[in-house]
Amino acid sequence: MQEALAASERKFRTLAENLPNHLARYTIDGRTVYLNPKLETLLGYRTDEVAGRTPTQIFPDGRYAEYESRILETARTGNDSQIELSIVVEDGTQLAHHIDCVAERDDTGAVVSVLVIGHDITQRRRAEVDLRMAASVFQAAGEAIVITDPTGVVLKANPAFTQITDYDFADIDGHNLFELDNAAYAGIQAALEQDGSWLGEISCSRKSGESFIQRLSIAAVNDENADVIQYVCIFSDISQAKRHEAQLEYIAHHDVLTGLANRMLLTARLDEAAEKAHRAGRLLGVLFIDIDGFKSVNDRLGHQVGDQALVQMAQRMIASLRDTDTVARIGGDEFVILLPDLSDVAGCEMSASRLLKAIAEPIDVEGYRFALSASIGIALYPEHGDDADSLLRRADEAMYAAKRNGRSQYVFCSDDSRNGLHLDSSRVYRLRLALEQNQIEVHYQPIVDLATGRVVKAEALARWRDPERGLVLPSEFIPLAEDSGIIHAIGDRVFSLALDVAEAWNKLCPDGGKRRISVNRSPREFLDPDGVDNWIAQLDERGGCIGHMLSVEITENLLLDDRPKVLCQLAKLRSAGMTIAIDDFGTGFSSLAYLKKFAIDDLKIDRSFIVDITDDPSDRTIVESVIVMARHLGLCLIAEGVETEAQASLLTSAGCDYAQGYLYARPMPAKEFLDFVVAAETGALGVVA
């Protein structure tokens, strides 16, 4: 009998030690009898270490309390029981186990021990979690998910599929996905058979027939033999993103106001057109257009009217040209047109003529009717340049030649025209860039009342703060500005800045007396078709008595031609409250006749007569004579270039009204000037270094 029991025990242990499962035997009161090697490894204890101890004695933290309870229940009732147990091993890993508790009986049927068999179900539980998660994702995903068999027949689809395509699952159940839209899915199945996956963007149709863009990803699901058993298709509707992307692309390459190409798109098309012209042996025309008189309209009638006028101009240009031509807006009232694939110059001239005619047609905007014109400069590839920068620069030069020659015309770029203008293209470009980047600034030189020593006037003087050369004086860049036509923009900028300082200065005056700032106006500016309209518009916009804080300085030669247009402009400025001063008096063709005929307020005696006034009797006699003459004519005298106390004393004795020069102050930036005049209000001025 004992031998039989021993043999049975050996068979049991042999079986237990080779089982893939965990196995243990416990007494009916829960004490450990045996642990097989697999369970010993799991728990970290050998049988001889824990024999006679219950699970809760081995692990007193309570993790196996339920386990022990099931063992005791099985021993007590004799009924088999099951439990799912989470086991934490030494490295902290948590494993899921299914436990079967089996009662072992003797020959009489009494329970003598409990056999416990454990199965590691960790992977199964993880798979179940993954499946539940996948199911949740499948249902809640914002992207459409469709599962098909290897031939493309739909097996399952999530709610997002219906939301995106309007197809219910019943509409596609059992149908081939790739046959719903043959054109969209053409070629995809062949790619899947070859590569097992596909990724890309396609245009599809919803159930209603409306088209949309989808970003589609298809991947094969393979079995253990690497055979395809399913395809998982995931796609999203990217139509709105595509539209937004197209809008951003459009905005990046087009002018917001007119919808025309901007400088970036223009440059790209110009390079492309030049390359095509080179390969085909054809001409390419580049037309640089500036709208004459636009700034005056914009200032007088407002930006809204100006914007609508530009839109009309853009539409007229497009209507006057071929579909293959490009119209671009690169600045406020500046446009560039590309005329590709020209066989000869005549085609370019015809286009320019049509543009001039179209632009000159009257414009009706918000009850206003007015007409504008255009100055057009033309450069040709390859004659005038072989890249975008050179062609645009030469066309720009030609445009300024058109302005200089009277406007409302087109001018071809040529070496003769360049020499006639005395222009250095690089300097013109840098000067225009300086204006755009606010490098043109204004300095102010005080003018002193000789009787009181107080600063009551000042002259606004343009300066170019060149990043490379430093501060450039007007004698160096004003002639270039006049020849290139940039003088009009510079003059308007100086006037606008002088207005700011004049207002600020007069607010600082404690006595309420008007202080005036004088602004030089070039003869070229008076010959502009817009005249002084821009200045008058700026004065009207500010309102009040701002004009009484300003004076305009002109050269005496301007009045010799006796042009009605010039006289009319001077009258407009005087009506606005501005005074008129003759600058550098005595250096031109001085005439007492025009001093009597024209409404002149001030004479500024040129510094060449002042420099030697204390040493040269002739200069002193001339100055004294001019002072006497001015007094009889009711004019005020301003002496320029006063640098010594002796000069100032002599001028005061002779009855000169005002003085300007380094004795009092050098020209200075706006803030420094305002600080200076505030300080000057405390007393008479001395020499300022």
Question: Overview of this structure, please?
Answer:
Residues 81-133, 198-250 form the PAC domain. Residues 8-54 form the PAS domain. Residues 424-681 form the EAL domain. The protein is elongated. Strands 18-19-21-22-23-24-25-26 form an 8-stranded mixed barrel, surrounded by 4 helices. It has 4 domains: 2-124, PAS domain (Beta-Lactamase, 2-Layer Sandwich); 141-242, 2-Layer Sandwich (Beta-Lactamase); 254-421, Alpha-Beta Plaits (2-Layer Sandwich); 438-680, TIM Barrel (Alpha-Beta Barrel), CATH 3.20.20.450. Helices cover 44% and strands 26% of the residues. It starts with a helix and ends in a 9-residue tail after the last helix. Helix 13 (294-301) packs antiparallel against helix 14, helix 13 (294-301) packs parallel to helix 22 (533-542) and helix 20 packs parallel to helix 28. It has 689 residues and is an alpha+beta fold. The protein is built from 28 helices and 27 strands.
Shape: elongated
CATH architecture of the largest domain: Alpha-Beta Barrel
Number of strands: 27
Flag low-confidence runs. 415-423, 684-689
Say what the CATH topology of the largest domain is: TIM Barrel
Largest sheet: 8 strands, mixed, barrel
Domain unit count: 4
Distance between the termini: 131 Å
Radius of gyration of CA atoms, rounded to a whole number: 48 Å
CATH C-level name of the largest domain: Alpha Beta
Going by helix content, strand content and strand pairing, the class is: alpha+beta
Mean pLDDT: 85
Helical coverage, percent range: 40-55%
Keywords:
Beta-Lactamase; Alpha-Beta Plaits; 4 domains; PAS-like_dom_sf; EAL_dom; Diguanylate cyclase
